[in-house]
């Protein structure tokens, strides 16, 4: 009898244990996370576009065929460096022809300004010199004869032929000088000067065409965009290349309208680029938007940030990820953001108390991408329940997931 009672008791204990085990394993399973203290950065994550702080477009100033392309995308160029050369053969031919005309017209003008045809001019000049010599000699002889007459050493009538000789020499000089002046027509000189100016204008125009056939870098920087292609035809004003100084970049960050109140000038900014996921760039908010614009389905403000780019890896025109650090709490009581729920117009979390869920209203503060600060309602080390497919309620018995 005693053995039977002992066996019955053992079976009863085993059954109770089995029931407890089955009941425990029948409880719904939930994932939990600990309330922890950690440094919390409140980050506003969004997207943006990188641009140079200082940049300029190099444009073609005349039409022409690209015969030389001296720049590649990403190349560092100095101000004034040749980017593109256009075909200038026609302009060089025009310049050579104009310079030949200038040389000929200048020779013609030099001859005219010297008195006309060389042979005639030399003959007249020789005659003028001889006439002046004759006049000078006649004047000396007349002066000598006048002194003799005054001294009664010669008769006065001898003065008459000597005076006639001087008068004849002077008349000869005037005649030759008038003849020399008639060799050059002032209207001919004026016409020749006009032809010289015309040839010089053609030469200047040809030189200008040759100069404009070369497109140069407007500033020192990186050619981050090259539009010209060798063999392509460019029209006046066509874009050749965009040159920018990209050691520091301006990143235009698109911040949604409700978040604009969190942003202040001087806040730290971190930039990432999907093309180089292992790198990041740092800077600060430089300028807040003056208006809100539509960006696809969003209403955003364009926040300007200045980013250091010392290795010149981040390129202008790239779409980037931006993280603006709006605040920092050094020892914040934090939980995963997804643990926070709204139940009956109340913000709170479910806390696991043993095997029972308890609803705890909480007051939250700043948040990072993954965690949020709890100001009131939770203690350090508490276990909060993460979202699951299970419908949760206060007082529900559950078991934590292993």
Summed up:
With 402 residues, this protein is α+β, with helices and mostly antiparallel strands.
Write up what this structure looks like.
The chain is α+β, with helices and mostly antiparallel strands and 402 residues long. It has 4 domains: 28-40 and 331-400, Beta Barrel (conserved putative lor/sdh protein from methanococcus maripaludis s2 fold); 43-54 and 244-328, Elongation Factor Tu (Ef-tu), domain 3; 55-87 and 220-240; 93-208. It has 5 helices and 22 strands. The protein has helices at residues 2-26, 89-113, 118-150, 159-183, 186-212, and strands at residues 29-30, 32-34, 36-59, 64-69, 75-77, 82-86, 214-216, 221-226, 233-234, 239-256, 268-273, 276-287, 292-295, 298-308, 319-336, 341-343, 346-353, 356-361, 363-367, 371-376, 383-385, 399-400. The strands form 5 sheets. A 6-stranded antiparallel barrel has the order 3-10-14-12-11-15. The protein has a 4-stranded antiparallel sheet with strand order 7-6-4-9. The model has no long low-confidence stretch (mean pLDDT 88).
Topology:
Elements: H1 2-26, E1 29-30, E2 32-34, E3 36-59, E4 64-69, E5 75-77, E6 82-86, H2 89-113, H3 118-150, H4 159-183, H5 186-212, E7 214-216, E8 221-226, E9 233-234, E10 239-256, E11 268-273, E12 276-287, E13 292-295, E14 298-308, E15 319-336, E16 341-343, E17 346-353, E18 356-361, E19 363-367, E20 371-376, E21 383-385, E22 399-400
Parallel strand pairs: 1-22
Antiparallel strand pairs: 2-21, 3-10, 3-15, 4-6, 4-9, 5-8, 6-7, 8-10, 10-14, 11-12, 11-15, 12-14, 13-14, 15-20, 16-17, 17-18, 19-20
Helix pairs in contact: 2-5, 3-4
């Amino acid at each position: 009898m005693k053995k039977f009672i002992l066996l019955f008791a053992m079976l009863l204990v085993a059954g109770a244990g089995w029931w407890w085990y089955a009941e425990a394993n029948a409880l719904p399973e939930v994932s939990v996370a600990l309330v922890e203290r950690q440094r919390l950065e409140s980050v506003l994550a969004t997207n943006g576009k990188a641009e140079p702080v200082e940049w300029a477009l190099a444009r073609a100033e005349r039409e022409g065929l690209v015969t030389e392309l001296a720049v590649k995308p990403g190349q560092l160029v100095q101000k004034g460096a040749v980017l593109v050369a256009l075909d200038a053969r026609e302009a060089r031919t025009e310049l050579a022809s104009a310079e030949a005309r200038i040389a000929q017209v200048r020779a013609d003008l030099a001859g005219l300004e010297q008195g006309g045809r060389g042979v005639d001019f030399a003959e007249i000049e020789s005659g003028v010199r001889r006439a002046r010599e004759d006049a000078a000699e006649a004047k000396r002889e007349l002066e000598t004869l006048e002194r003799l007459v005054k001294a009664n050493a010669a008769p006065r009538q001898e003065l008459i032929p000597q005076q006639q000789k001087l008068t004849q020499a002077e008349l000869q000089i005037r005649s030759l000088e008038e003849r020399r002046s008639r060799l050059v027509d002032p209207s001919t000189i004026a016409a020749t000067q006009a032809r010289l100016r015309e040839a010089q204008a053609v030469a200047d125009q040809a030189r200008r065409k040759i100069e404009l056939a070369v497109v140069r870098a407007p500033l020192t920087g990186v050619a981050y965009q090259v539009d010209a292609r060798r063999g392509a035809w460019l029209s006046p004003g066509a874009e050749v290349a965009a040159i920018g100084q990209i050691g520091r970049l301006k990143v235009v960050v698109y911040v949604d309208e409700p978040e604009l109140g969190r942003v202040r000038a001087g806040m730290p900014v971190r930039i990432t680029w999907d093309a180089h996921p292992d790198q990041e760039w740092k800077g600060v908010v430089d300028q807040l938007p003056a208006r809100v614009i539509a960006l696809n389905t969003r209403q955003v403000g364009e926040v300007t940030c200045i980013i250091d780019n010392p290795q010149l890896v981040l390129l202008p025109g790239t779409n980037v990820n931006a993280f603006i650090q709006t605040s920092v709490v050094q020892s914040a009581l934090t939980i995963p953001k997804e643990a926070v729920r709204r139940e009956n117009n109340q913000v709170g979390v479910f806390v696991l108390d043993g095997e029972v869920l308890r609803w705890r209203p909480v007051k939250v503060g700043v948040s990072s991408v993954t965690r949020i600060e709890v100001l009131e309602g939770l203690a350090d080390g508490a276990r909060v329940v993460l979202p699951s497919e299970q419908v949760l309620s206060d007082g529900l018995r559950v078991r934590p997931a292993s």
